[in-house]
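Structure tokens please, single chain.
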Amino acid sequence: MKKVPLIRGHWAQGPDLMAQDTPFGQGTRMRVLEGYFAEAGEVTESNAWEHVYRCLLWMNVGAGLAHIYDSNHMQPGGVFHSRAVRFTELLCERWKITPKELPDLIDILFKGCVAELKRRQAEEPIDSETESELISAVQGVLRGEGLADDKALAVSRKIEVLSRDFFTIGNKRKNALGEGLEDLLLILLQRVSKVPIEKLALRQPVSKLPGFRRAPPPQKGEKRKREPHPDVAIVEGKVTHVIATAKWSMRQDRETQFQSEYASFQRNKVQDTELTYALITNEFDIARLKNVAKAMPGSEGGYIFHNMYHVCLPLLRETHGERFKELEPWVGTGKLQSLSDFLTDMRGRYGEL
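Here you go.
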């Protein structure tokens, strides 16, 4: 199989992708993804969802289930626990594996970034003074609770390692997940939809996209105003055809962001050619999906996505059972589809033969 370059060309983010080579940065993420796809076999429209889940889905440790909703609601007794159980069972059935095997087969991108972080940490000496102070402080607390000296010291060292990992790694998942989905979408558009990299723009300021008004230079002494950076755009010549927003999940503040970005896009668009707004998501909350589906400019929501694509619409339907009927009107009109439909559509419109 011909090897497809994952990110190259004029529209790659920033002047030098590999210069942004932090453990969780784009350079590292692309190397991890490139390594994964080199061994992934044939990637098609129909199996793309599996690769998304293998790369980005992770386990909720507390619940012991695939993480598809807010953590507190996924725990036993939580409002989403039974659905998380159902999703995890369905996924294991499709992959013909046991639940115990699932953790080793998913979360590949984040694990790869963590491995790179640990590799670099091994090359850098740890501040022994800070380390010893923390161990001593914890050891003192444990002694006060009655633990013997040797036991208190061993437990203190374990706590120090865990706390160091938590504060250096624990908060990194959001960044790896958010931009990781965008990176992965770009890869799938190249590998599956055969869209040439010259037509793909990743996280570029909207003023730099064709068909949009150029940003005026800031006045003397003023900072340049922040402008939206569409996650992925498909461009051609002087026209932007598609702006694709990739959001793994949709918190309540997402709708405010959608409204603000849509208003900015419409205000600064100068092309006459129709522009399609698409949303790619793995959201499993029916109510959140309904809110986005029914949003319209000038009324509820104040924005619009012409199409919404779920990573795996069949699994969303099976996970929710009867309640999925609330989304059927948008499935019927074609507004709510699956990732496979997006890749097929983009291949037909913008892919090379």
